[in-house]
Amino acid sequence: xxxxxxxxxxxxxxxxxxxxxxxxxxxxxxxxxxxxxxxxxxxxxxxxxxxxxxxxxxxxxxxxxxxxxxxxxxxxxxxxxxxxxxxxxxxxxxxxxxxxxxxxxxxxxxxxxxxxxxxxxxxxxxxxxxxxxxxxxxxxxxxxxxxxxxxxxxxxxxxxxxxxxxxxxxxxxxxxxxxxxxxxxxxxxxxxxxxxxxxxxxxxxxxxxxxxxxxxxxxxxxxxxxxxxxxxxxxxxxxxxxxxxxxxxxxxxxxxxxxxxxxxxxxxxxxxxxxxxxxx
Length: 280
Fold this sequence. Notes:
Layout: H1 2-23, H2 26-51, H3 68-74, H4 77-107, H5 115-127, H6 130-144, H7 155-173, H8 178-187, H9 192-220, H10 236-246, H11 251-279
Helix pairs in contact: 2-11, 3-11, 4-7, 4-9, 4-10, 5-7, 7-9, 8-9, 9-11
């Protein structure tokens, strides 16, 4: 009797779901939901870019088109210096990350002791909260080791942040035939260096370049992990936080956010395009 009641209840639920799905066009509903989510994500970015060209500042509605705030931005020596420091740090971090992540990704073509543990350590660099890692790094590097704060002291912290992403990108983007081609070259008598130069590197170069672009973008936009390490050598994200916390959001910051957003989007698009090209 209980089984019959349960069966009847299940049938009624199914019929209710069937009637509901027939009454509502699922495809239209999912499309509307996706559109709402896209609007929710990108509306703040679009408004940031739009109001950076507003001659009336942050007032609404839009007053007039003007590039006044970009002129103010580029005349702000503090932001210019912070941008230069961010670019310098990102370039150094990108080089180190590219070398380490490429070596790690190539090593994962083989089985070795501690393979799984190393992967967990890499992922730990992603899941650890940035401010927590920044406080721990400050305690280790400045208090225990006695190193002076400065721009380059943030380098290892940024590398720990960027390497896991680069390794994941490389592992996903390496050609499936890479091991077979290397094995064929070894059978034909090519030494290790020749195999790397003539067989491996040409196949992985686009993916390596894409991973480097992602690493550059991550380092350029990183703030919390190096907050307590850079000292007076503020990077651009830290300078933005300091400016916004000291006063309030200004049209100048809107212009800076627009430039940074567009630059990051272009770099990520290039990196993604390179990786997709290499995978095909």
